[in-house]
Amino acid sequence: MSANKSSGKTKTILLFSGVRREDAGNKRLLAHQCPVTDCRLTGDMEEAASADAILFEGSIAEPTRLLHKARPPGQIWVLFFLESPFHTMGLKEYYGKVNYTATYRRDSTIVTPYERWVQHRNLSSLPSSPSKNYAEGKTKQVAWFVSNCGDKNGRLLYAKELQKYIGVDIYGQCGDKQCPRGEPRCTNMLRNDYKFYLAFENSNCQDYITEKLYWNAYQNDIIPIVMGARSEDYRKTAPPGSYIHVDSFASPRALADYLSLLDKDDSLYNQYFRWKNTGEFIDTKWWCRLCAMVHQPFIDHHQQTVTDLDSWWRGPGVCVAPKKGQRWATWRK
């Protein structure tokens, strides 16, 4: 759509979980500089029958009476997820009623990743090492900022085991160091002092790659060590050659041995930064796309609703978790 082009009618999008005052109306759309801004975001449930679209967030735990009513003709229902299947509710109440799924999963109706990397130049055309030494001045090895000590993938146990063989500084409630994430002094410390960052998700699920990779590691010129989605998911999402996946190693000790090798060799360390200046991270402008979509004639929307949502969202193979006593080397198999 061209700038500010629409059907001529302001569309109402009801956010079932509510909307912040600073985002109400079209404020969020204006803030994102959307090409289509004549949508109104509201959290007023009194408008459920008249809204053009309703956005249900997967973190809502309690079924609503609204789900037991017929969807008004022409109204669009969107199911929106940012959390993994381990941290979202059962979806039987939504069977046969949702028009769109909007999640970080690449097989969603509307793909809403935390970030999107777009490659412009091939690494093969670049020098073998970047011009900048990204190891310069860094005297510490591994950092991790973490506040949620519960997980579905054993990430804390893995980090504690890794800590036996290489320097791992854990900040927050799960460690013995404190530095509030997001404070400039902590960000500067991470960027200037550490060579590696544990970009560990709380669940190992398909395509589940969050801000831990993009904002904590890449923005701070630090090599991310990743745990969460499968290796093939990272290959399709992250800049090539920019991260280290725990699945590539038989044990935390084997990973520590490799990190120690990189720590001692600036040339090898810098190989993980060849991707710099070969592409860009882009904002996929989810709210802009949602508003533009609602302005499309209803006949353009998927008339078929999604039936067995749970099989798609949390069916076999979507997520994996270690069994009690199982070694890290085998639990992904």
Automatic annotation (TrEMBL):
Keyword terms: Glycoprotein, Glycosyltransferase, Golgi apparatus, Membrane, Signal-anchor, Transferase, Transmembrane, Transmembrane helix
Keyword check for Transport: no
Give the record's GO CC terms: Golgi cisterna membrane; Golgi membrane
Q: Which domain of life is it from?
A: Eukaryota
Principal EC category? transferase
Q: Which family does it belong to?
A: Belongs to the glycosyltransferase 10 family.
Entry protein name: Fucosyltransferase
Q: Which organism is it from?
A: Capitella teleta (Polychaete worm)
